[in-house]
Write a sequence for this structure.
């Protein structure tokens, strides 16, 4: 089959891009796969960051841009057996035999409410989401029963001695989905500083972040605020380097959505949480916010801990630090849970999707 894949945020280098390009990699084993994009460099960055193999994947001109007219796009998509598009709720008109939409964030409104939108939606064969958190909103917005295919997480933990490290991995952004500090990294920095001020000793907080040029100035300000504390920053590291950090750390923090009204803006929460699963796969005990997709990954007090306030985050973490046996027991259960999101499960579901 000839398959085309489009991710409008390919230069963003985030979890959604890893998800879509992993689909491309899987399908390229037995199919001809094209990715619509106009920049080879972004492919190189994604390959380095996520370990995606683009050997059998071809980059073709991006036809999903305003400069490409409807007739031209219809002609360009007609040869494809399947098109798989990452969508924000918009539905492009294409001429492929099958059209599949992947949606990664909650939707409230969509083009499907209009008559023309309903006509375009009728051309969509399947819609799949990254988590039930997302699905709940998408189903209501589109009036369709969508499928859930969790992101694939290949565990590449290294056999390293665990150290007294609390870890966070995520993009650093000044602004995302209309709010600043989307990942709440500065809040985690401040929380750890309080723990140190409260006499926590022999532990450090490590933040592994990816940064774009436009956000460097704000990042340096956060970095400056951490001076004098055992806080380290690792910037734009490779996939292998991140796994080294996962393998050394004992505890993992995640805070996206904290302090936000998630009833009004659920998109401010983490929609799934690939880094949380990766950390668990390496034996890090997750101490993560009780919101969004994190609740689907972590079962509280069984394979990790969920918190709702910064005081709770601090107390849960301090309790774990004081109880090495609990830390070790939950660590083993975390590793077992991470296996549920393995790449084999993902590949099987993707192959079923295109049949």
């Amino acid at each position: 089959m000839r398959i085309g894949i489009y991710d409008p945020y390919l230069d963003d280098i985030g979890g959604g891009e890893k998800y879509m390009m992993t689909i491309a990699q899987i399908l390229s084993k037995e199919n001809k796969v094209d990715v619509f994009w106009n920049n080879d460099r972004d492919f190189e960055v994604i390959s380095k960051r996520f370990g995606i193999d683009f050997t059998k994947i071809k980059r073709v001109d991006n036809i999903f841009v305003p400069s490409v007219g409807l007739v031209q796009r219809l002609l360009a998509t007609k040869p494809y057996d399947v098109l798989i598009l990452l969508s924000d709720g918009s539905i492009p008109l294409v001429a492929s035999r099958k059209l599949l939409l992947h949606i990664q964030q909650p939707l409230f409104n969509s083009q499907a409410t209009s008559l023309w939108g309903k006509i375009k939606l009728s051309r969509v064969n399947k819609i799949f989401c990254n988590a039930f958190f997302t699905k709940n909103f998408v189903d209501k917005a589109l009036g369709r029963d969508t499928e859930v295919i969790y992101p694939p997480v290949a565990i590449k933990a290294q056999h390293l001695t665990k150290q007294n490290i609390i870890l966070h991995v995520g993009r650093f952004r000044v602004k995302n989905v209309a709010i600043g500090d989307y990942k709440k990294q500065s809040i985690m920095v401040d929380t750890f500083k309080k723990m140190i001020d409260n006499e926590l000793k022999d532990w450090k907080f490590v933040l592994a972040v990816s940064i774009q040029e436009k956000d460097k100035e704000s990042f340096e300000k956060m970095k400056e605020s951490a001076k004098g504390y055992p806080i380290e920053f690792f910037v734009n590291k490779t996939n292998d380097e991140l796994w080294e950090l996962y393998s050394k750390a004992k505890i993992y923090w995640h805070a996206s959505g904290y302090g936000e009204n998630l009833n009004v803006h659920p998109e401010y929460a983490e929609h799934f949480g690939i880094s949380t699963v990766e950390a668990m796969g390496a034996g890090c005990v997750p101490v993560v916010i009780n919101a969004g997709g994190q609740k689907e990954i972590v079962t509280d007090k069984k394979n990790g801990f969920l918190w709702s306030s910064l005081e709770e985050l601090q107390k849960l973490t301090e309790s774990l630090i004081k109880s090495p046996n609990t830390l070790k027991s939950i660590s083993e259960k975390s590793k077992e849970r991470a296996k549920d999101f393995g790449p084999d499960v993902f590949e099987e579901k993707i192959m079923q999707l295109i049949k």
User: Anything to note?
Assistant: The chain is about 40% helix and 20% strand. The longest strand covers residues 165-172.
